[in-house]
Specification:
The chain contains 19 helices and 2 strands. The chain is mainly alpha-helical. It has one domain: Growth Hormone, Chain: A, CATH 1.20.1250.20. It has a two-stranded antiparallel ribbon. The longest helix is centred in the last third of the chain and has 31 residues.
């Protein structure tokens, strides 16, 4: 294990304050993605659009969140974290408020998709870029904690939003929660900042190779290691985003959405449990990867995801199984948001960490297309969710194998070369 210099005692509280602020800001922007499924039916009724067309809103949110992330990362590095992340939090809340007033499909795309997508992207990439700098000796854990905020945030909102939609309607719900979450995100983001040169050590502490110098985005994009990580993250993103975006649709098709389980309807109960496991897995597997290596942790977690998806399909008619197994699905999926950014920063350095992760985060956008409208289209063409689930299982297994038998040897070779990555000839 490569160990970095210890932090000065006076700086210890500062980085933990930054971690908590980042966690709160991430929680404030998570609902547009993670409770989208609760607004699916009301938006379909209002617009009269089909499932695939409505699901394009979700994909648009993720695409804008991810495809603009390299530019957003550059802006954060150029103009500072506070200004950009605060702006992103405001845009995310505004997207919900504006979407409450639209009645057309294009209006939905332009509000929920556009504003929430750009806003959440700025906040997400910016905060991850901050944490890999503040915690170079525990990148897996620190990025896992703030990424957990993105998974945990909807725990606090799922049942209240579901209840308010039923009692007050979805429009009032969007306005109320859009304003509330926007203000919370702005308040937390206002105090975020980059570490000063003497506030953090320069070396990472993860098991495995760590870059001894910093690579620009242009240099990184010429390296096969980056593209391997990109393909792997795309495949893993697809499965989780399929479950997130289509959960209410396949739960209703399976006939278990409204079945009472443990005193609550299966659908909102499963969504709440999913947020818990989706949050817990990020710091948990991030911490594991800091000690047993990124690739070993990836293999373990991704195979767990494949098993959970297969079991969810096998027991799809059982409401209790749906609740329990969907939680296991997210426990095997959410860790990608701690493992991939920490692996990337270990490999390519911290100077351009925010922008570099922005390029890798684009894989999430591709996954949203495959897991959103493409999965819905496959369901409509085949008349069944079985092909969708089997395809996800296959991608999860393939990604686990790539981590263990391709990524691990590549990084091991780099470790033998004095832990320095060499770009391909340009």
């Amino acid at each position: 294990m490569v160990m970095g210099a210890s932090l000065p005692r006076r700086d210890f509280p500062t980085r933990w304050v930054q971690l908590v602020l980042g966690l709160i800001a991430m929680m404030a922007i998570s609902s547009p993605q993670y409770v989208w499924t609760l607004f699916l039916k009301p938006f379909q009724t209002t617009t009269g659009a089909g499932l695939a067309a409505i699901q394009f809103t979700f994909s648009l949110l993720i695409v804008l969140q991810t495809f603009f992330s390299p530019a957003q990362g550059w802006l954060v590095e150029r103009f500072g974290a506070r200004v950009l992340i605060t702006t992103g939090a405001a845009l995310s809340g505004l997207g919900w408020i504006l979407s409450s007033w639209v009645d057309s499909l294009w209006g939905l795309y332009a509000t929920y998709g556009l504003f929430c997508g750009i806003g959440t992207g700025i906040v997400y990439v910016g905060i991850v870029g901050l944490m890999v700098r503040w915690f170079p000796q525990a990148r897996g854990f620190a990025t896992g904690v703030v990424a957990a905020g993105y998974g945990f945030g909807a725990i606090l909102t799922t049942f209240p939003i579901d209840t308010m939609i039923r009692s007050e309607g979805y429009r009032a719900t969007l306005v109320t929660f859009g304003a509330l979450l926007g203000l919370v995100g702005i308040a937390a983001s206002f105090f975020l900042r980059m570490p000063e040169p003497d506030e953090a050590p320069t070396l990472g502490g993860a098991e495995g190779p760590v870059a001894r110098c910093d690579y620009s985005p242009a240099e990184m994009l010429r390296m096969p290691l980056f593209w391997l990580l990109f393909v792997m993250m795309t495949m893993m993103s697809t499965g989780g985003l399929m479950v997130i975006s289509q959960f209410s649709a396949f739960a209703r098709d399976f006939g278990v959405a409204d079945v009472i389980v443990f005193g609550a309807a299966a659908l909102p109960l499963a969504l709440t449990i999913d947020r818990i496991t989706n949050g817990l897995t990020r710091p948990f597997f991030g911490w594991i990867s800091d000690h047993m290596g990124r690739e070993n942790t990836m293999g373990l977690a991704f195979l767990l995801e494949a098993l959970a998806i297969a079991l969810l399909l096998a027991y799809r008619d059982n409401a209790t199984a749906l609740v329990v197994l969907s939680g296991l699905v997210f426990f095997g999926w959410g860790e990608i948001f701690s493992l991939f950014p920490s692996t990337l920063t270990d490999s390519f350095g911290t100077k351009h960490a925010t922008t570099n992760y922005g390029f890798l985060y684009m894989a999430q956008g591709i996954g949203s297309i495959l897991g959103g409208p493409m999965a819905a289209l496959l369901r409509e063409q085949t008349g069944s969710w079985v092909p969708v689930f089997l395809l996800i299982v296959a991608m999860d297994v393939l990604t686990a194998l790539l981590a263990l038998f391709v990524l691990k040897p590549m990084r091991s070779t780099l470790a033998k070369e004095k832990l320095v990555l060499t770009p391909l000839p340009g």
